[in-house]
Amino acid sequence: MRVVVAPVFGTNCTVVSAPGGDCVVVDAGAGVADAVVAHVRSAGLVPRAVLATHGHVDHTWDAAELADRFDVPVVLHAADAYRLADPFGSLEHGRTAAVAGERGTHRALVSGPLGAALAAAGARPQDYREPARVETFDVPAGEERTLRWGALGLRAVGAPGHTEGSTLYLVGEPGAGVVLSGDVLFAGSVGRTDLPGGDGATMARTLRDVVGRLDPEWDVLPGHGPATTVARELATNPFLAR
Predict the structure, then answer these.
(1) Which of 158, 169, 172, 194 could form a disulfide with 180 if both were Cys (CB 3.0 to 4.6 A apart)?
(2) pLDDT tens digits, 115-164
(3) How far is the C-alpha of 73 from the C-alpha of 66, rounded, in Å?
(4) Can you tell me whether residue 233 is helix, strand or coil?
(5) Domains assigned to the chain
(6) At what angle do helices 33-42 and 63-70 cross, to 10 degrees?
(7) How many whole angstroms separate alpha carbon 3 and alpha carbon 70?
(8) Residue 115's pLDDT is what?
(9) Any keyword Zinc (predicted)?
């Protein structure tokens, strides 16, 4: 497993591979494409898909580019697929504008922290590209579905609240595996619920009934920030204590 940290919002992009070389890329944030391609080539991996833990643009910015370069689909929960077509309008409450670029016209954020972070990294809203190949899955909150590509299998667990389609990906087994938690769970914190599609009551249920019931032996790699463990978060995370 290899983690590439995106320059925009520090999104953790993870390359997950099986012993035979089959791999998927999870959460392709802005600015990770070249590093991911270099790792895949140097390790002799065979890309099968580009996954997203949810549809926010800081987790999908480079998804179309990597999907095209690897000739694979972008895969995410069906409830968040709409965000790929309108990444900025579906993320921020507030003022947006239509921006025309070489890849079409779409709504773009013209204020707020995301706009500042993109500008600082040299990424322009009009350069965002919607993936051409999108495959979706549907898994209800708290339920589990196995996604498989060749020798590689991940378990997708519905974990809504941060967004409607937020998903945990379980790789391996407790004690020898990791939960890719996206923006559901962080070290010492949890994902915000005040953006469009977020819901505090739904997040509370996810934290209680999904995260709270994970095996404590799982390692956790959040969508941003340092790795942690389920045991540590259950013991110290104030949002789980609630």
Answers:
(1) 169
(2) 667 777 776 777 889 999 999 999 999 999 999 999 999 999 999 999 99
(3) 9
(4) helix
(5) 2-241 (3.60.15.10)
(6) 30
(7) 18
(8) 65
(9) yes
Token code pair at residue 102: 């070489």
pLDDT of residue 234: 96
CA-nearest of 134, 176, 133, 180 to 155 is: 180
**Which one-letter amino acid corresponds to residue 111?**
S
Report how far apart the first and last C-alpha atoms of the chain are (Å, whole number): 33
Strands 178-182 and 185-186: what pairing?
unpaired
* Amino acid occupying residue 210: V
Can you give the pTM of this predicted structure?
0.91
**How long, in residues, is the chain?**
242
Q: Rounded to an integer, what distance in angstroms lies between the CA atom of residue 238 and that of residue 33?
A: 35
Q: Are 234 and 240 in contact (CB under 8 A)?
A: yes
**Among 32, 6, 36, CA closest to 24:** 36
CA dist 219 and 171 (Å) reads 10
From CA 112, how far away is CA 51, in angstroms rounded?
Answer: 26
CB 182 within 8 A of CB 168: yes
**Cα–Cα distance for residue pair 11/194, rounded to 1 Å:** 19
Closest residue by Cα to residue 66 from 123, 27, 106, 119: 27
- The token pair that represents 63 in the structure block: 């998804």
Q: For residue 13, what is the enclosing H or E element? A: strand 12-17
92 pLDDT band, cuts 50/70/90, is low
Q: Greater confidence, 20 or 103?
A: 20
How many other CB atoms are found less than 10 A from the CB of residue 159? Answer: 33
